[in-house]
Amino acid sequence: MSAPRTTPRRALAAVAALPLLALALTACGYGSAAKQDDVKPAGAPVGGKKLSADTVKIGYFPNLTHATALVGIQEGIIAKELGSTAVKPSTFNAGPSEIEALNAGSIDIGFIGPSPAINGFTKSKGKSLRIIGGSASGGVKLVVNPKKIKTLDDLRGKKIATPQLGNTQDVAFLNWISEKGWKVDANSGKGDVSVVRTDNKVTPDAYRSGSIDGAWVPEPTASKLVAQGAKELLDESSLWPDRKFVITNIIVSQKFLAEHPDVVEAVLRGTVDTNAWINANPDKAKASANAALKELSGKALPAEVLDPAWKSVQFTDDPLAATLDTEAKHAVKAGLLERTDLTGIYDLRPLNKTLKAAGKPEVADAGLGVK
Predict the structure, then answer these.
(1) What is the pTM assigned to this prediction?
(2) Which of 32, 60, 261, 294 can pair with 69 through a Cys bridge, CB separation 3.0 to 4.6 Å?
(3) Other Cβ atoms within 10 Å of 29 Cβ, number
């Protein structure tokens, strides 16, 4: 992971992102750089309630599917629950980098996709992390060149991009291909469909040049392609029960959870409040997320990309544990993950305590919680 840069920013500035990350040995296609800012959010009351840690280090991606972190920090909602505990935000561009940072103690809590969470848990033999909450569902689409592909059957023989070998969308597409009865070698991407692993940053250029015929990608990349003339052929949510599947989890290092449970609970109160605010104020939340993205990248998403991308993501406290288990099984089926026991990957006790106190229904761990 490249060395982080510290830059002056507004007191509440920070950005979240999409974990579109590797189940196998690779990251999802955003590179590996991280950016860190030691910031005391203006929303944190000076001299507020003293928690067991002076600082909590939170990592996330600059992506709309991480808007819980984006908005929660931008608006000071998470800071409000932390009292005098400062937030140190770090933004990452690849799942393995965030897992490495968590393992090294550079971050304590992270927003991340299911694939790197599974990979981090299994590689550490269940000792590195726990999933403690949900953040987002959906936000993944198959978009294609309408001149070359008019139906799903037309994908045969075409070149379709995914973010990276073994990442969450790559596994989903490989599983979809398998269920069609088509054959593709998972590692090479060669077969009845050519699966082209392409960094999300360059996928729009690849589509424009004609080197790919479509892509199975997260937002906002999917909407960027549609803005270039691509057509949405499939929303991945249509393949899941109740149209819900996990795209972003909240993880914590087991060490930090054991030493600072009060801080973890405070962060979760903040994320629950943030999701409630996002769902109650979608237009304000969308603008807040876009402002944070602009602050990080220097460029806001245009309305033609932002609006459809935002609509396709659902923000939820529920980690949708059963869908993570299914995604792991899809990776095993594709040969990208060894069969493994995920028991203990979840500890939803702090979240359920928070939800109960807020008068909200508790969430389930699909039998994969700590015993």
Answers:
(1) 0.83
(2) 60
(3) 27
